[in-house]
Amino acid sequence: MKPTPRDVIHSDGTAKVYRFRTRSGATGAGPVLLLVPSLINRWYVLDLREGHSLVEACVEAGFDTYCLDWGEPNDEDRYLSWEDVLARLRRAYRRVKRFAESDDVGLLGYCMGGTLTSIFAAMHADEVAALVNLAGPIDFDEAGMLGQMTDRKWFDAEAISAAGNISPQQMQSGFVALRPMTQITKWIALADRGHDPDFVDAFEAIDTWANDNVAFPAAAYKTYIEDLYQDNLLVKGEHYVGGRRVDLGEINCPTLTIATDRDHICPEPAARGLYDRVNAEDSEIFVIPGGHVGAVVGSRGPKHLYPKVTQWFSEKLSR
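^ thats the sequence. predicted structure below, dont judge the formating
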């Protein structure tokens, strides 16, 4: 793996914001982007390996590219609330605007990062220049197997979070339960294609990232499961953050929803929830082939995802 060179421009608790450079050391002078990954997965899925990196593609396209690394929560972060997480995102976004000296900053959220950035854009519609939701669930009635697993009839988020942060092992067991045979088939695939250096490089990179999860702050977890997965309050217009109702219809900036056609984490209808509810005149949905991770870091990323993201932001953001 050859990560894109980066510098830290902001720290906030365990979180950091990176600004990326080309391998020659130059930084983009074009439109400004902030990438926001999931809260519970390592940020480097967006910069996994050379040639298969959304970060690299954005930098090489000339964007002034930043990424929020949520960091690894400590034990005392069990009290970090959903509201605190969104406040941290707002501080990161504002820091990027000040650092880049630009009010025209694009925002891309991946997975849970897409959920968070959509909520942020609804609450601060006058601040976001353009929004991309990359495989982030919005309509949790369409959450598929994860929605079934977290059904209130048999899943008590309060009891689970009472002991503190939800550990990486707990989170990973849930994802394994979605596709249990994957743990076997991936090793069969490696045995079958172990002679291919490119396949082995990709396998090792993805497997390392997939097993490098972080804990979920307990207070934020309880809200995320109860308000969104169990009660679907976001699309109902009944989700509150800091006493303020979140209305997705307030989003009026150019908005792109990207879904994948074989996604068991965020099925296409779950991501489509944003497209169906924003009030933006310029709104688009784009479905790409692949799964939740493979479409981003696999062979299809450079063919489908990266060109779409860079072209779309180039059209929506000023230089």
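The two ends are 31 Å apart (CA to CA).
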